[in-house]
Design a protein that fits this description.
Elements (H helix, E strand, L loop, with lengths): L1 H26 L4 E8 L4 H16 L4 E7 L5 H12 L5 E5 L5 E3 L1 H8 L2 E5 L3 E3 L13 H22 L3 H9 L3 E3 H6 L5 E3 L2 H8 L2 E5 L2 E5 L5 E5 L3 H9 L2 H20 L5 H17 L6 H19 L5 H17 L11 H27 L13 E4 L6 E6 L2 E6 L9 E8 L2 E6 L5
Parallel strand pairs: 1-2, 1-11, 2-3, 3-5, 4-6, 5-8, 14-16
Antiparallel strand pairs: 6-7, 9-10, 12-13, 12-15, 13-14, 15-16
Helix pairs in contact: 2-3, 2-9, 3-4, 5-6, 10-11, 10-12, 12-13, 13-14
Length: 436
């Protein structure tokens, strides 16, 4: 009995230890570091993607979140929403301008300066942050100065908060200066130059920074790297936000409505056109639309429809094509190249539209000139045979049928006659001369 008690006393702690080990292992899950990759224009979809990524990193208590970015810039409102989330994040946010050949221009420069850690890859550049007109009309000198001063003050405050080069930050806004990664590191605009993501992770290990919740030391050694991806919804919305896609959707919607109006009851073109127009309007609401350009495109649609209803011998079609080209060029009013519709899209669209409506016009003119083959018009000028004397009335055989006929001159039975006119069910005919 004593022997059994000694075995039980010695084995009990060991059993408890074995029982608690799995619990301890599952009680503290391994931490991770998130990597969010973004390549494109800073717009509402980009803002939603980055803000969601930061919020998820905070909820999962990630060690840090790395935003790998390559952007030509974008909208001021979207940029400020992203920066606000970065400044208030308790999780360190690292902005990495990568891979090689990438840039952080305009809004991208602001976001990089606002990061807890700013890094760049070899062969990348940063700067050119001067604000450009993002509305449907040009800014006057006073308004332009106000916008520039506001952007410069915002950039200065971000640089001061992160201890970066304030003078260069302001020049990036006022003079649109842009520098390479080597110059950026030398001027203390950024903190790190890394070859790739692995090199960056190695350099970040042990890095001290100050977040919204206080001082934080980043540990990357041995941590799991979790890539943050766009949802399907965000990918679709990002595609729709492209000015070229928005323009093509607008044209597709116009063509669909045109076919539905000219061929009532087809249904399919109308459905496709309606959906395309709604998607185009969603995309255009996030872009600096010039409403004069939009009205010109709608006028072009009206002129094309009028060409089918009114005989203008191509003048309405030409007016529609000119209206569509100028409307397309004016539709997006921005100095930023990435917000403009590409000429490689506008010119083929105009040429295809011109070819299509020229083809329709040709068919319409041929139909107008074609001789009628049915009804009263189809009998005019047909040759028939007199079935008896016509003095001045009688019977003629025309087009396989026997008709009552009238003639202003006597016609003998068996003579050839030509139909001149039809009045009710009686034909007016004339004798066919021998030389005819």
């Amino acid at each position: 009995m004593k022997r059994h008690r000694r075995i039980f006393s010695a084995g009990l702690p060991l059993c408890l230890l074995l029982f608690l080990l799995p619990v301890a292992g599952h009680g503290s899950p391994a931490r991770e570091i998130g990597v969010l990759k973004f390549d494109g224009v800073i717009n509402p979809v980009a803002a939603e993607f980055m803000i969601n990524g930061i919020q998820n990193a905070v909820r999962s208590d990630s060690e840090a979140l790395i935003i790998q970015m390559d952007t030509p810039g974008g909208l001021d409102t979207s940029m400020r929403a992203i920066i606000k989330e970065i400044l208030n994040s308790p999780v360190p946010i690292v902005v990495f301008v990568a891979p090689s050949g990438s840039r952080a221009a305009s809004a991208g420069a602001f976001i990089t300066i606002a990061a807890h850690v700013a890094a760049m890859a070899r062969g990348s550049n940063i700067g050119a942050a001067h604000p450009v007109a993002m509305g449907g009309q040009k800014m006057d000198e006073t308004m332009s100065k106000k916008v520039e001063n506001d952007a410069a003050a915002y950039m200065r405050s971000l640089a001061e908060k992160r201890g970066r080069n304030v003078k260069w930050a302001e020049e990036a806004v006022r003079k649109s200066v842009s520098i390479s990664e080597t110059e950026a590191l030398k001027l203390k605009v950024i903190d790190v130059v890394a070859e790739d993501m692995d090199d960056l992770l190695a350099r970040l290990d042990g890095w001290k920074t100050t977040t919204a919740s206080g001082e934080k030391v980043i540990h990357t050694k041995g941590l799991k790297v979790a890539e943050v991806r766009m949802s399907v919804r965000q990918k679709i919305l990002a595609l729709l936000s492209d000015p070229n896609i928005a323009y093509m959707l607008l044209l597709l919607g116009m063509y669909g409505i045109f076919f539905e109006l000219t061929s009532p009851g087809a249904i399919f073109p109308g459905v496709i056109g309606g959906i395309s127009i709604i998607l185009a309007l969603y995309a255009l609401q996030a872009l600096p639309v010039n409403y004069a350009g939009l009205l010109l495109i709608l006028l072009a649609l009206g002129l094309f429809i009028a060409e089918i209803k009114v005989t203008s011998h191509g003048l309405l079609t030409m007016g529609g094509i000119v209206s569509m080209v100028f409307g397309s060029l004016m539709l997006i009013n921005s100095d930023a190249p990435f917000l403009r519709i590409s000429l490689s899209i506008i010119i083929p669209a105009a040429l295809l539209t011109a070819a299509f409506f020229t083809f329709l016009l040709t068919l319409a003119l041929k139909a107008q000139r074609r001789v009628a083959v049915s009804g009263a018009e189809g009998l005019i000028n047909l040759i028939g045979t007199a079935q008896g004397p016509i003095q001045p009335t009688g019977k003629v055989f025309v087009h396989g049928e026997l008709w009552d006929a009238r003639s202003s001159e006597p016609i003998q039975p068996g003579q050839k006659v030509r139909v001149v006119k039809m009045e009710g069910l009686r034909l007016t005919v004339e004798k066919v001369k021998e030389d005819s």
